Amino acid sequence: MTTIKKTRAHRPSKTGRRHPLASVALIAIGLLFTGGAYAAFSTSTAVATTDASSQQTIAEGEKLFAANCATCHGLSAQGSTEGPSLIGVGAASVDFQVGTGRMPMQMQGPQAQKKPVQFTSEQIAALAAYVASLAPGPAIPAAELLDAAAGDAANGAELFRINCAMCHNVAGAGGALTEGKFAPAIENVSAQHIYEAMITGPQNMPVFNDMNITPEDKRDIITYLKYVEDNPSPGGLALGSLGPVAEGLFIWIFGLGAIVALTVWITAKSN
């Protein structure tokens, strides 16, 4: 019995058991390796696509920004009391605001007014490239997403009625908002600027990212708006496409006015 007890007492412990933190360490090493590989790949790709011409464009945009935008937005686009920060707004926001003439603003007000464009297309591209270089943000949409002929007008009409018509009117004629603000008319607006407005949310407009409305659905909305532009009102006089209020006012003024005039005329004839 004594010999058996000694043998059991001196039996070596199992060496195959892992430490409780071993799994955590392995996961951490795996994450570090994966993240490092991804960062290296992303950096090499970015370096490969950033050539001398793009650097020159960014430099030109920085000069234009310092001369025309820094007064309100700060020398480094960090924002000030006169204008918001532009870090992270992306090239699409700059292309929309400057490409529609809303920026630079003529005066402070409830919202920026659309007016004649102040810069050439090359200068706008340079400004957009500079702001995009400061931080990631929405990019200018690809050409295939702006092809109205490739979209579905029926699906675009449904999406527009659900997401946009409450402000812009079902025909895109625009509408009034609160505190002197308004939703502008979308007639004769380029497909690129319509798409950029959806992904950047200018003024009081919400941002419709790809999780809200897919790129293909955005193209369908553009298709619907271009269809409305190209096809006149099937009901006759559109009255600005402002909806039942304008139509009711027209009937109230001209319809009842015509009835009153006819009544006066008949009464005068009978006498």
Automatic annotation (TrEMBL):
<dbReference type="GO" id="GO:0020037">
    <property type="term" value="F:heme binding"/>
</dbReference>
<feature type="binding site" description="axial binding residue">
    <location>
        <position position="168"/>
    </location>
    <ligand>
        <name>heme c 2</name>
    </ligand>
</feature>
<dbReference type="InterPro" id="IPR009056">
    <property type="entry name" value="Cyt_c-like_dom"/>
</dbReference>
<dbReference type="InterPro" id="IPR036909">
    <property type="entry name" value="Cyt_c-like_dom_sf"/>
</dbReference>
<keyword id="KW-0813">Transport</keyword>
<feature type="domain" description="Cytochrome c">
    <location>
        <begin position="56"/>
        <end position="135"/>
    </location>
</feature>
<protein>
    <recommendedName>
        <fullName>Cytochrome bc1 complex cytochrome c subunit</fullName>
        <ecNumber>7.1.1.8</ecNumber>
    </recommendedName>
</protein>
<keyword id="KW-0679">Respiratory chain</keyword>
<dbReference type="GO" id="GO:0008121">
    <property type="term" value="F:quinol-cytochrome-c reductase activity"/>
</dbReference>
<dbReference type="InterPro" id="IPR050597">
    <property type="entry name" value="Cytochrome_c_Oxidase_Subunit"/>
</dbReference>
<keyword id="KW-0677">Repeat</keyword>
<feature type="signal peptide">
    <location>
        <begin position="1"/>
        <end position="39"/>
    </location>
</feature>
<feature type="binding site" description="covalent">
    <location>
        <position position="69"/>
    </location>
    <ligand>
        <name>heme c 1</name>
    </ligand>
</feature>
<keyword id="KW-0479">Metal-binding</keyword>
<keyword id="KW-0349">Heme</keyword>
<feature type="binding site" description="covalent">
    <location>
        <position position="164"/>
    </location>
    <ligand>
        <name>heme c 2</name>
    </ligand>
</feature>
<feature type="domain" description="Cytochrome c">
    <location>
        <begin position="151"/>
        <end position="229"/>
    </location>
</feature>
<comment type="subunit">
    <text>The cytochrome bc1 complex is composed of a cytochrome b (QcrB), the Rieske iron-sulfur protein (QcrA) and a diheme cytochrome c (QcrC) subunit.</text>
</comment>
<keyword id="KW-0472">Membrane</keyword>
<keyword id="KW-1278">Translocase</keyword>
<dbReference type="GO" id="GO:0005886">
    <property type="term" value="C:plasma membrane"/>
</dbReference>
<keyword id="KW-0732">Signal</keyword>
<keyword id="KW-1003">Cell membrane</keyword>
<keyword id="KW-0249">Electron transport</keyword>
<keyword id="KW-1133">Transmembrane helix</keyword>
<dbReference type="GO" id="GO:0005506">
    <property type="term" value="F:iron ion binding"/>
</dbReference>
<feature type="binding site" description="axial binding residue">
    <location>
        <position position="73"/>
    </location>
    <ligand>
        <name>heme c 1</name>
    </ligand>
</feature>
<dbReference type="InterPro" id="IPR009152">
    <property type="entry name" value="bc1_cytC-su"/>
</dbReference>
<dbReference type="Pfam" id="PF00034">
    <property type="entry name" value="Cytochrom_C"/>
</dbReference>
<keyword id="KW-0812">Transmembrane</keyword>
<feature type="binding site" description="covalent">
    <location>
        <position position="72"/>
    </location>
    <ligand>
        <name>heme c 1</name>
    </ligand>
</feature>
<feature type="transmembrane region" description="Helical">
    <location>
        <begin position="249"/>
        <end position="268"/>
    </location>
</feature>
<dbReference type="Pfam" id="PF13442">
    <property type="entry name" value="Cytochrome_CBB3"/>
</dbReference>
<keyword id="KW-0408">Iron</keyword>
<feature type="binding site" description="covalent">
    <location>
        <position position="167"/>
    </location>
    <ligand>
        <name>heme c 2</name>
    </ligand>
</feature>
